[in-house]
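User: I'll paste a sequence; please echo it back and then give the predicted structure.

Assistant: Echoing your sequence first, then the prediction.
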Amino acid sequence: MRATRSKPPALTPEDVPAESRPTHTRAKVTSRRALIPERASTAQDLPSASELDVLRILWSRGPCSAREVQCEFPTKAYTTILTFLQKLREKRLARRFEHARGHVYEANVAEGPILAALAQRLSEQFFKQSATTLALQTLEAVALSPRELNALRRLIRQKEKETSPTNAAS
């Protein structure tokens, strides 16, 4: 019989000594590209599906040890998670720093720009660079909640304002 693992307590930024933390600030950025590391502009620098799953854990939980990440994926071996984390570091999408309990990993990029870059790659590879076709196919294939529909309406209205002739002249 296999013993079940209990989840270790999540690390908070306060658990990590200040001298071990990366020195970065979270300034407001107006460009999505500004949050993607310079190197992460090619297809091989974007995360794979499994690496994206690991990044989502880092985005939602904040700084985590490899063991904490692994607890979210009980069917994956610890060494597999370490490999994903190492690949994310090589792509400069995550960073590692020392902590009393070992290495701690943290996302090095924001979620929005990475998802936008993945959507752009998807559009280029499968939809002949047509964002419209990608969006329409997605909307037809997926059931949306009223909240999601309202968010889409707001986005469409915003895009219409941005591209209206009155805005183009100013």
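The domain at 31-111 is CATH 1.10.10.10 (Arc Repressor Mutant, subunit A). The helical segments are 49-61, 66-71, 78-90, 111-126, 131-141, 146-163, 165-169.
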